[in-house]
User: Fold this.
Amino acid sequence: MTVEVRLPTVLRQHAGGQSVVRAEGATVGEVLEGLVRAYPGLGGQVLAQDGTALHRFVNVYLNDDDVRYLERLDTKVSDEDVVSILPAVAGGAG
Amino acid sequence: MLTLTPGTHVRLVGHCLDGLPDEACGLLGGDPATGHASLCYPTRNQAASARLYEVHPLDHLRADRDAESRGLQIIGVFHSHTHTDAYPSATDVAQAPDPSWHYVLVSLKAEPVVRSYRIDDGKIAEEPVALAAG
Assistant:
């Protein structure tokens, strides 16, 4: 499958300034691994260091669904799907 | 410098007041080249806390799509401090995701005070905030 991957502004610098790229894979995990292979600067920004889980400060959506509530990196993708990567936006007075 | 349309200013302060006693948060849509925010996207605070905020990721996704459909981008985030000054906390600095963003703080400890900062690699720099039409 080749799916569309939408990148947040903070990560675009690692993908030649592009906001949308295409990546291949049968699952969200494979798509993200393919993305990092194509744009090594994204390594460690999207997946945790060992590559087996999402980075803690990243949210990944498959269309309108948070993949953490699907099958995480094992979530299957189809050709028409859109994977969106968003930074977790958090803070507070603490 | 960050400029806000009057409507954006009113909406962001209003959303922060509506969120009391918890912290409230939202995103700003606009032109990254000029720092002009013409869109306010109130979002749910997933942390539902008086001391923490976490922009609900689905609201973030929708705001991002809407801004892009208008030829704009998400250029910043705002949140309230309910009992402290409008200055980034250590938590805010540690979790600031994007050095290109404007980080707007709304203090509600007295009359609302709106201030904006850039946060890059842990360094905080306040920037002016002004109202501008358009």
About this structure: The interface with chain B takes residues 6, 8-10, 19, 57, 59, 61, 64, 66, 84, 86-94 of chain A (CB under 8 Å).
